[in-house]
Amino acid sequence: MRIAMIGGGYVGLVSGACFAEFGIEVALVETDAGRLAALREGRIPIYEPGLDRLVAENVAAGRLTFGDNLQAAVAGAEAVFIAVGTPTRRGDGHADLSYVYAAAEQVAKVMTDYAVIVTKSTVPVGTGRRIAEIVSQVRPDLEFDVASNPEFLREGSAIGDFMRPDRVVIGVESERAREVLRRLYRPLYLIEAPIVFTELETAELIKYAANAFLAMKITFINEVADLCEKVGADVHDVARGIGLDGRIGRKFLHAGPGFGGSCFPKDTLAMVRIAQDAGAPSRLIETVVSVNDARKASMAARIIAACGGHVRGLTIGILGLTFKPETDDMREAPSIPIVWRLTEAGAKLRVYDPEGMAQARDLLPESVEYCTDATDVTTGADALAVVTEWNEFRSLPPAKLRAAMRGRVVVDLRNIFDPAAMRQAGFDYHAIGRGAALSAAAPRTA
Known about the structure:
The termini are far apart. It is elongated and about 75 Å long. The model has no long low-confidence stretch (mean pLDDT about 95). It has two domains: about 210 residues, 3-Layer(aba) Sandwich (Rossmann fold), CATH 3.40.50.720; about 210 residues, Rossmann fold (3-Layer(aba) Sandwich). With about 450 residues, the protein is an alpha/beta fold. The strands form three sheets. The chain has a six-stranded parallel beta sheet, sandwiched between helices. It has a six-stranded parallel beta sheet with strand order 11-10-9-12-13-14. Helix 10 crosses helix 12 and helix 10 packs parallel to helix 13. The longest helix has about 30 residues. The relative contact order is 0.09.
């Protein structure tokens, strides 16, 4: 088979490389000159474990090509995937579909034979219908189908998610289009991955509903963590106790500074607007958006309180900047409001992230000092805050940290350290929702 993938961003590049790994000929279209040049030179413009190898192997095999000629890419393609950005629209919170609709119009102009136009981008309910209208208006003579095939790729594990998915969702209406996409995903059918065929609107809504539910789980456990701190419970044990219930599940029950990234903030806000426009407001998701925004904004106050109520003149080390480990994505990262607030309060910030510092430079204050590694961050620091739970931070010996730091305050916003070990090393250790663990680790007096 041959397909065209419009958009060489995160979704388009990962999906295109994985389809090529299936043995499919993939022509990826990228109009950004800098990104296209990087791809042609073998440089991957995003960080995703294993993606550089996957791209290189399939380029070498001739199955994956990069270009900016849409007509050449679409020629002979049985499916044309639209994988362009749908950022939050300024002013109203809706998803900005201008790139999607522009791509659909351009595809219609160059298509010559039947193909399935597939939205891979996250789009609101009704987008597929509107794409069909656009294509029909531009080319009334054209034979085509529209399908929705939302992605469920987690940054940091996207290749595994594509190759061994929990499910593949395909919204399609004609048997001809269904057959094209069934053949496209045949390798996953052979390993018995669930492939769910639905109507267009259902597939579009599944993506938003899934992300909104996961965001709600994160927000829920964060509020439980706050309660744990008040009543002396341990959120780790609470999460395990409820997560072992099969109806709830253990994933996404990790307390922290709030969710960020390219999907959850954007998609929860878009779902709120979709529900409001449909006359079925989602009060739960409205609350999730509000609570999460407030939580990210409040994290700096936790650090300031741990430092005695003021940080002016103090040097504070920040471990981790990206919104999650195993990515270089800084979009909506909790580190951004934390660093800005601490800087405004008069602190000197020293930061380190294994992959995100290049992206962070345009988002953080100019006064921030970027360090070479975790040890460099801690040297001479009056306080240390863990913001992203990269694995290399988990293995830092408490005694080594204590020897490097000038102060003894550690604010662990990801709960990666053992409270007892940190207290034993002499730290004034603060975690999220670990009231019982911190009490047990505290020295007892008669």
